[in-house]
Design brief:
Helix 2 runs parallel beside helix 7. It contains seven helices and two strands; from the N terminus they run ααααααββα. About 8% of the residues have low confidence. Strand 1 and strand 2 form a beta hairpin. The chain starts with a helix and ends in an 8-residue tail after the last helix. The chain is elongated.
């Protein structure tokens, strides 16, 4: 009888233990779709550009298409590493009430080009990949690795956090930051292509 009581008590206590913040199937699928769509949008946007078009810029203070692509290849790793660093901090479910944005709001903010953030030196393009095609190879390799992490991770991505330029975000939202950032710069590339002086070939 005592053993039966102990067993029942264990199950009762377990019911009150907060479940880990592992991703749901829907969260995984949503993130994978977002990463896939934004990566493809970038590839499509630059696919037919000539070397002259890739390197053109309207002024010295504005990035070229090539600069944007290199920046994205660099960012794909740096932002992912940032997300992973948040997972190493103690989980704190009580902070969820402090999140500033929903997942969808975070995506919208990231592609709002009226909101400008100064790029840190570590993200600055410097020609390190040698060519746009090489930068895209690196981008795609890093993107595939990041997507595999999202598909398979059991990390608690909802109860770890980071301060972002847009307010407190959880680790899952920091990962969404990667794909949203890709779309942000794809839109910047579209702006360049729409410039009146953009080369015809």
């Amino acid at each position: 009888m005592r053993n039966l009581f102990v067993t029942a008590l264990v199950f009762l206590l377990a019911a009150f233990v907060e479940a880990p913040g592992g991703l749901t199937k829907e969260e995984r699928e949503s993130a994978i779709k977002y990463f896939t769509e934004t990566g493809q949008a970038l590839a499509d946007e630059i696919s037919s550009l000539t070397e002259n078009q890739l390197k053109w810029k309207p002024s010295d203070s504005v990035w070229s298409v090539a600069n944007n692509v290199e920046h994205l290849a660099i960012s794909e790793k740096i932002i992912f590493d940032w997300a992973m660093s948040t997972v190493k901090t103690p989980a704190d479910p009580s902070k969820r009430s402090q999140l500033k944005n929903t997942d969808e709001q975070m995506k919208s903010i990231l592609v709002d080009r009226s909101f400008r953030v100064k790029t840190q030196e570590s993200f600055q393009p410097s020609g390190q990949f040698g060519s746009v095609s090489a930068a895209m190879v690196e981008f795609k390799k890093r993107r595939a690795s990041n997507m595999e992490y999202i598909r398979t991770t059991e990390d608690d991505l909802r109860n770890h956090y980071a301060e972002t330029p847009f307010g407190l975000a959880d680790s899952y939202q920091v990962l969404l930051f990667i794909a949203g950032h890709t779309m942000r710069h794809t839109l910047q590339i579209r702006e360049l292509k729409g410039h009146a002086d953009f080369p015809k070939n």
